[in-house]
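$ ./design --mode recover --in tokens.txt
reading tokens...
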């Protein structure tokens, strides 16, 4: 019975692992597709927010630059401009850098100056990247997803239209995906909060289902062992209307048929035994009769042989007497 339980236990484990593997695979595929969709959605949101931010903030930054950064050559003017730009950039944490650039690539203003705390003197600072130079020449707002210093970024170029038409300068924004990592971390956490309870509930339900599925098999296996040992009075009580219930009904019918067959065989065996006994008696009687006849025949043979011997001796004696008579006559 230990081996039986172990085998059935392994069957339960196999069923459980199979179902859990399917569910885990389904959850994994769902999570992967969902996370990929959310990541793409958030990436597009970052881009869209960056474009809206650039559209609404470009002219304001440019005006501040013209008013406070160019006309007022003082540290106070620079600090006021710095504070104003930083307040605007705080409205979109994904924008990590903003610069005012001419269409020839000359950098007029760069927010990196805020880190140094002083105004750039404006001599000899050019962008040499051909991709960025191509964006600077576009008359309409343009953007490009690319890598900058090993980091994935969005480069947005917003042209500053002149009153006479066209543009000589553009506001260039560098949008980072850093917030995407934080936002995706929140999504990962939400996914875990959903998946872990589902997985635990699924595991418990799967174990329960596996046990309920294999329990009738264990019963059938145990009863089959009893039937093998000769106990045909066993019966399994399962009232389910599925294949296992049909199997239980077939098992009960089988034991019933076997019981009837055994009863018939026992009756036939008794009749056969009785007939054998009767025939054995008849054979014994015939044997005795045959022995008696053999004894009688043997006695007859002995008598016949004795008589034959006597006849031979008599003939011999007669022959001797005839010879003696002949001798006397001579």
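writing sequence...
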């Amino acid at each position: 019975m230990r081996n039986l339980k172990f085998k059935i236990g392994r069957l339960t484990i196999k069923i459980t692992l199979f179902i859990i593997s399917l569910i885990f695979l389904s959850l994994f595929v769902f999570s992967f597709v969902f996370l990929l969709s959310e990541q793409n959605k958030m990436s597009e949101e970052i881009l869209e927010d960056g474009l809206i931010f650039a559209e609404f903030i470009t002219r304001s930054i440019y005006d501040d630059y013209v008013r406070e950064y160019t006309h007022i050559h003082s540290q106070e003017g620079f600090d006021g401009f710095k504070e104003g730009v930083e307040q605007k950039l705080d409205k979109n944490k994904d924008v990590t850098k903003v610069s005012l650039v001419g269409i020839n690539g000359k950098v007029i203003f760069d927010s990196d100056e805020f880190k140094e705390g002083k105004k750039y003197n404006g001599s000899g600072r050019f962008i040499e990247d051909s991709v960025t130079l191509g964006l600077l020449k576009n008359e309409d707002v343009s953007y490009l997803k690319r890598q900058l210093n090993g980091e994935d970024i969005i480069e947005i170029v917003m042209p500053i239209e002149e009153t006479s038409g066209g543009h000589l300068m553009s506001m260039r924004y560098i949008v980072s995906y850093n917030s995407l990592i934080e936002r995706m971390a929140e999504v990962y956490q939400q996914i875990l909060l959903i998946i872990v309870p589902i997985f635990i509930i699924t595991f418990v339900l799967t174990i329960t289902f596996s046990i309920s599925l294999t329990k009738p098999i264990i019963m059938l296996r145990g009863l089959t062992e009893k039937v093998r040992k000769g106990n045909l009075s066993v019966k399994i009580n399962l009232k389910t209307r599925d294949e296992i219930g049909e199997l239980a009904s077939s098992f009960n019918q089988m034991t019933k048929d076997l019981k009837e067959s055994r009863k018939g065989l026992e009756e036939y065996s008794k009749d056969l035994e009785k007939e054998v006994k009767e025939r054995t008696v008849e054979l014994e009687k015939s044997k005795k009769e045959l022995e008696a006849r053999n004894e009688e025949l043997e006695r007859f043979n002995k008598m016949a042989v004795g008589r034959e011997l006597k006849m031979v001796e008599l003939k011999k004696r007669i022959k001797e007497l005839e010879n003696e008579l002949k001798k006397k006559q001579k």
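exit 0
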